[in-house]
Amino acid sequence: MKIRTAQINEIEKAREQDFVKEVAHEIRTQHADECKDLDDEALRAKVEDGFKQAKSYGLKQKYSLSMFVQLQFLSAPDFDEYPTVRYILTHPSVEPDDKIDRIIETMRESDWEEIRRRAPEAGQ
């Protein structure tokens, strides 16, 4: 039995979609206030966009991808543009999947408050 590349790609897509659903459910369950205005489809789309953004920084592990998206919901969709966060995410000496832990360890509550204050939705 041979598995073709197309079959492998389909399996990977299915796994990715399962993970998107899992993270969306986690966010809906644990952070209901932050996603109350989103239906399930819109929430999954935000999770997918967050994964793409996280992957652009080299994040690959499920924990890192999930935490990146959760930080988007808890702080701001563009939290990665905050100088300290950007520095950590783009610093070459920090292993990609150590970056989220480094952000969490480094940031103070005042940093998160500033990120939330600057969020695009905050001014609306």
Mean pLDDT score, rounded? Answer: 91
Question: In terms of quaternary structure, what is this?
Answer: single chain
Structural class: mainly alpha
The proportion of residues forming helix, as a percent range, comes to 55-70%
Question: Please, how many helices?
Answer: 6
**End-to-end CA span:** 57 Å
The strand count comes to: 0
Task: State the low-pLDDT regions, or none.
Answer: none
Can you tell me the number of structural domains?
A: 1
Indicate the radius of gyration in whole angstroms: 16 Å
Global geometry: globular
Order of SSEs, N→C?
A: HHHHHH
Main sheet overview:
none
What share of the residues does DSSP label as strand, in percent? under 5%
List keywords for this structure.
single chain; 124 residues; mainly alpha; 6 helices; 0% strand
Please explain how this structure is put together.
The chain starts with a helix and ends in a 6-residue tail after the last helix. By secondary structure, it is an all-alpha fold. The radius of gyration is 16 Å and the shape is globular. 66% of the residues lie in helices and 0% in strands. Helix 1 packs across helix 2. The chain has one domain. It contains 6 helices and no strands.
Task: Give a quick rundown of the structure.
By secondary structure, the chain is mostly helical. 66% of the residues lie in helices and 0% in strands. It has one domain (5-119).
Task: Please specify the SSE layout and strand pairing.
Layout (H helix, E strand, L loop, with lengths): L4 H26 L9 H17 L5 H13 L8 H8 L8 H8 L2 H10 L6
Helix pairs in contact: 1-2, 2-3, 4-5
